[in-house]
Amino acid sequence: MKQSIFTIDYNIALTSDVYKMRLIGDTSDIKRPGEFVNIKLDGFYLRRPISVFDCDEEAVTIIYKVVGEGTEYMKTLEYGAQLDVLTGLGNGYDVDKCGDKVLLIGGGVGVPPMYYLAKKLLEAGKTVSMIMGFNKKEEIFAKEDFEALGVPTYVTTVDGSEGIKGFVTNAMDMVEYDCVCTCGPEPMLRAVYDASKTTGYYSFEERMGCGFGACMGCSCKTKYGNKRICKDGPVLVKEEIIW
Amino acid sequence: MVDTRVTLSGWTLDNPIIPASGTFGYGYEYAELYDINILGSFSFKGTTLEPRFGNPTPRIAETPNGMINSVGLQNPGIDAVISEELPKLRKCFNKKVVANIGGFAVEEFVKIVEKLDKEDIVGLHEVNISCPNLHKGGKNFGTDADAAYEVTKAVKKVATKPVYIKLTPNVTDIASIAKAVEEAGADGISLINTLLGMRINKRTRKPVIANKMGGFSGSAIFLVALRCVYQVYEAVNIPIIGMGGVSSAEDVIEMMMAGATAVEVGAYNLVNPYGSKEIVEDLPRVMEKYRIEQLSDIIGGAH
Ligand SMILES: Cc1cc2nc3c(=O)[nH]c(=O)nc-3n(C[C@H](O)[C@H](O)[C@H](O)COP(=O)(O)OP(=O)(O)OC[C@H]3O[C@@H](n4cnc5c(N)ncnc54)[C@H](O)[C@@H]3O)c2cc1C
Ligand SMILES: Cc1cc2nc3c(=O)[nH]c(=O)nc-3n(C[C@H](O)[C@H](O)[C@H](O)COP(=O)(O)O)c2cc1C
Ligand code: FES
Question: Do residues B156 and B139 make contact, with C-beta atoms less than 8 angstroms apart?
Fold first, then answer.
């Protein structure tokens, strides 16, 4: 974990309530896809945990949805603004363990961590497919980013306004895979868990105090014992999950 | 050169800064970030006889200047703490630690203190009595002077190390509880634990915390904590470890003037992982600002 000051390069709207922010600063502690950063915002006591969407030596990019007061404030931040950010948090996806034909599934703002993961899997020479689930056409974002990587990308929408009608699980039979990596709302994770025939890695969310393992605010029970979502997770292996 | 040393019941600390129980784990998480030996000491996570998972999640809520936690004393239990956590801690910490103890019956406190008393790394016992007493219909030990007296007396019988009783502020008259534990033989008093609070999600119309209510702490409670320390200092003659909302060296000075010999820093560590370190490093500068040469001179200075 590292605490440092990042400078906003851009903070732009992707949809009516989803924003993309590029933060320039020291990214040396971001090691694996699936990790998150924890952002201090003026006027808010606790930091806001957001997954890494993309990362290079110069900057980290995040995609966030406005859901409450903190993210409402975040969307007002402009180019040049500085943020105190903790990086290198969480136990992300282990690319080596992810199998050879990896199916990525993201729902809503569970899509972002799948992008950095896709890049790392491709670098490791693996075959990658992506399913992204949204409620409706207007909510879709980042599809072109996955396509630019050459990843076959399937979109599902609950109302059928774009792509396959229904849930992400409706697209799973169209892909051949030996491992699933997924992030999204818990009911979606559960549906993927039930529908998938292989092992997989599932990324969870919980309200956090510290985000670095000190407060026990984010604990969950697993078959391998109690775990902290922020430190031992957010990524858990399918076999240990207790619903 | 200023002198930051303070003494708690014969144990001299290099400085009065002690990260508070529940916000510093068993130390080694922070040792990855900085050399925790610069601290006066630290208070480890509240430890109970049996392992505890604690409360359901969500356990955390927020206000602009503070937070609510409802962790519910999650810890691996005393035996695992002694066999696993303390050995890990010894590798990165060469000072003595404040052993924070939780319990739900008098005998439970006694058994834990008996075990921890044998550990060389323990500097003093900090007995958290803000827990429900299962033998008294769940009534909190810390809100009942008789129960507080009884626990203190029982624990003192088996302890060779100093016993500090940690008080809850959720009472009408904190000074009377403090007097009861002093009378029972406590070597010192720690205060305050969290204030009972809650938040409601206005969209779902439901409490944010799964257990509905939780412990409110962070800078918002500093003024309440200061008042409690001040009142307890007037009531007793044993040393006080003051805490509640402390987030700067300035707060440390104020807390000591109210009557604290040492000062714990809690929630601030969670939002600023280097918080306690920064306070230790800033203390000499702030002492010079107020023309303090010997930090221990200001204890209770406001009375
Ligand atoms: C590991 C992890 C990764 C995440 N990655 C992303 C991401 O890439 N993009 C994205 O849009 N969102 C992500 N989230 C969710 C994001 O943290 C919350 O949406 C955000 O904190 C809401 O803040 P707020 O102030 O707007 O909401 P408020 O409801 O006003 O916040 C109040 C408190 O609750 C917490 N909180 C509220 N919702 C959540 C939630 N769903 N999860 C955890 N804490 C919450 C806040 O952090 C804050 O402490 C992630 C959460 C976790 C735990
Ligand atoms: C996440 C969290 C966990 C805590 N756990 C304990 C505990 O196990 N035992 C205890 O005596 N106090 C516990 N406390 C209370 C603190 O030690 C401290 O008394 C209180 O938070 C006030 O200080 P602060 O405002 O600086 O946080 C906890 C506080 C927090 C925020
Ligand atoms: S949020 Fe503090 S331990 Fe996970």
Answer: no
